[in-house]
Design brief:
2 domains, 495 residues, Purple Acid Phosphatase, chain A, domain 2, alpha/beta, seven-stranded mixed sheet, nine-stranded mixed sheet, 22 strands, 34% helix, globular
């Protein structure tokens, strides 16, 4: 146990945290200390329990200190994903240290048992005081050689910094939210010049936390369609573009609608870089406990987003039919523009149109009809609908809602195409901020008896009000007109 504890306290783990390369190390200080570097002040809070953690931030791709501080503020407004990441890393480190400690402790125990009591007494009888003294001297010399106390280091500048409450650091003119109680900072003269940035970040944090917290509370009370027995409701989000503030709101909408699963249509990031892991951590934590499927969007460049989500509990679709929610069949593929390669399994260099044809071929060749085709851009499923091989194609990409559009295929089969709006309220490639830049939308897809039977959308306006779309039933009888009749009336709820 002691060996495992020593290994745990001397171990460290590299992670991507708060858009930085970071190194975390556990300790028993009882403090969580965030070392931000030479310009910004270090931050300290007291987490519950006796365990502490030292977090040292490394490189980031932020273009300015102001941009970096605003990122911190937005992430602090929705920290659950980052907290879960650090907690998970510490748990993995503890388990690893315990296992390694057990392995290291096992040989002496096995040797002790194998030697036996009689042999141990015989060996002990041969040990005399000079042998013991020699052993002590050798042990001390080895310890001194490893320690080398004669090679002293200079005093570390950081040791002379004093911790002070954030309120004292900023001064009495800066109002702080209640959550800032217990937050301490440590800085020197260089950080005095950063007070303006910190003040701005506090304002961004306060605005973001209040806006999205109020929106999540209001979302929980929305009068959405109540699922009937046998229904399976899936929350559909797309084009989050790093806006982690909307994640708890989207989860509240999902819970209010009785959703048990979530579809992610991609563009969770602005560029697919590793620094945006905070966004993937957030959406993963927000929808914890639900069944989760997803694809990568055109802004999720490379394979990082797909691989990261797949490693964190998401079923990422790759052109093969899988079992979907509510006894359905589900097919999907990453946007071919996401990597610049347009890969299709082992083949490269395919265009958007070619990938659309390939995914259609898979759907049309299936033994069991494909219920849902999940893609980033619904246009990727146009051919599948035209050939009548899928019930429902859903996507995002446009940042505006479109459909559901009823399409009769060449074989007489009916399918629907639906595009949801941006879940992050994104006007551009990145939506991180204190409020959504444009209306943010979550769509709710209902399945019954293994088929899609209806869609409803919910939109959070930039002023904090909600607009509730009509529940639109799907799979109307063949003798009904192609224009879908809507049920209920759209509602508007103030925050």
């Amino acid at each position: 146990m002691l060996i495992g504890l020593l290994l745990f306290l001397t171990s460290s783990r590299s992670v991507v945290l708060a858009s930085h390369d970071a190194v975390i190390q556990p300790n028993f200080s009882g403090h969580a200390v965030l070392h931000t570097g030479p310009v910004l002040p270090d931050v300290r809070v007291d987490p519950p329990g006796f365990l502490g953690v030292d977090i040292r931030l490394g490189k980031t791709d932020a273009r300015s200190t102001d941009e970096l501080v605003q990122r911190y503020a937005a992430i602090a407004g929705q920290p659950e994903g980052q907290v879960a990441k650090v907690t998970g890393a510490l748990r993995d480190m503890a388990i690893s240290a315990a296992l390694r400690g057990g392995v290291l402790a096992l040989p002496p125990v096995v040797g002790w048992v194998l030697v036996g009591a009689a042999r141990r007494r015989e060996l002990a009888s041969r040990v005399h005081p000079p042998h013991v003294a020699l052993g002590v001297v050798v042990t001390v010399l080895i310890g001194l050689a490893l320690w080398q106390p004669w090679t002293g280091d200079d005093d570390v500048v950081d040791e002379h910094r004093e911790w002070m409450p954030l309120a004292e650091f900023l001064g009495p003119d800066v109002p702080l939210p209640d959550e800032a109680d217990g937050v301490e900072v440590s800085g020197d003269v260089t950080t005095v010049q950063t007070r303006r940035l910190i003040e701005s970040a506090v304002d961004t944090y306060d605005t973001s936390k209040s806006f999205y917290a109020d929106a999540a509370d209001a979302a929980a009370e929305l009068g959405l369609r109540t699922p009937v027995e046998g229904d399976t409701v899936v929350a559909f989000v797309s084009d989050r573009h790093d806006n982690i503030g909307m994640d708890p709101v989207a989860r509240a909408i999902a819970d209010a609608a009785g959703a048990t699963a979530v579809f992610d249509g991609g563009d969770d990031t602005s560029s697919g870089n590793t620094w945006e892991a905070f966004s993937l951590d957030s959406v993963t934590e927000a929808f914890d406990g639900l069944d989760r499927w997803g694809v990568a969007g055109n802004h999720d460049h490379g394979d990082f987003v797909h691989s990261y989500l797949a490693d964190h509990g998401w079923t990422m679709l790759d052109g093969e039919i899988v079992e979907g929610p509510g006894g359905t069949t589900l097919l999907g593929v990453d946007d071919p523009r996401s990597s610049g390669l347009g890969n299709w399994r082992d083949e490269t260099g395919l265009s958007f149109e070619e990938v659309g044809t390939r995914i259609t071929d898979v759907a049309c060749a299936a033994e069991e009809r494909v219920t849902t085709l999940l893609v980033h851009d619904a246009n990727l499923g146009d051919e599948a609908l035209r050939r009548g091989c899928v019930d429902l194609v859903i996507g995002g990409h446009l940042h505006e809602r479109s459909g559901p559009e009823r399409i009769v295929g060449e074989n007489g089969e009916v399918g629907y195409s639906y595009t949801t709006g941006t879940a992050g309220g994104a006007a551009y490639a990145i939506a991180l901020g204190s409020k959504p830049r444009r209306p943010a939308q979550v769509s709710l897809v209902t399945y019954h008896g293994g088929e899609p039977v209806g869609i409803q959308w919910v939109t959070l306006q930039t002023d904090g009000d909600f607009e509730i779309g009509n529940y639109v039933p799907l799979h109307l009888p063949e003798n009904q007109p192609d224009i879908v009749e809507e049920t209920d009336q759209p509602g508007r709820s103030g925050n």
